[in-house]
Amino acid sequence: GQQVMQIPQYQHVQEGEDFTTYCNSSTTLSNIQWYKQRPGGHPVFLIQLVKSGEVKKQKRLTFQFGEAKKNSSLHITATQTTDVGTYFCAGGIQGAQKLVFGQGTRLTINP
Amino acid sequence: DAGITQSPRHKVTETGTPVTLRCHQTENHRYMYWYRQDPGHGLRLIHYSYGVKDTDKGEVSDGYSVSRSKTEDFLLTLESATSSQTSVYFCAISETMSGTVDGYTFGSGTRLTVV
Does B9 touch chain A (CB under 8 A)? Predict the structure, then answer.
């Protein structure tokens, strides 16, 4: 079936270091969404990208959608302890009107 | 998010018993979903609904059934609970199936333990 692969599965960084998680699909996506789940919490929608090559920023977070609309990345600059959690990408499958979630990247931070 | 509530928040049940989880929304969204979350597997879709009495299977639907008799309520039933169904269950809602308006809104989750 259609899959959205996300790497790495886990990432541990020192506070202040940068962090990046990557999302890859074997098929072209109509859109890509990113969610954050704090420990013990539920996924919360962060942002959506729709256009080829699109880049969006939210403070220290930068989201990119690849030119071929098959991959995406989330980059956090100068991590803070409040960034701890699991980050999920979710790709919209073209023609299927379906959202497929990646496995998530769990970010832990050493203060 | 205040627009979606799940009940119960926690439940412990015995193997072989039926269990029903409830999801209630006040957003009047058309689409509702049930996911389970397990370590290493992310979010896996169990069933979803695209309207009253309109439901379809997700990728891990075996052992589960759903019902949606009203726009605001989506019930998930484990017909005969097994230990492999111990998980955290999330309900989600959206205006479109691909979430192209404001993404999916998730409930706070139900932690189910089958002993």
Answer: no
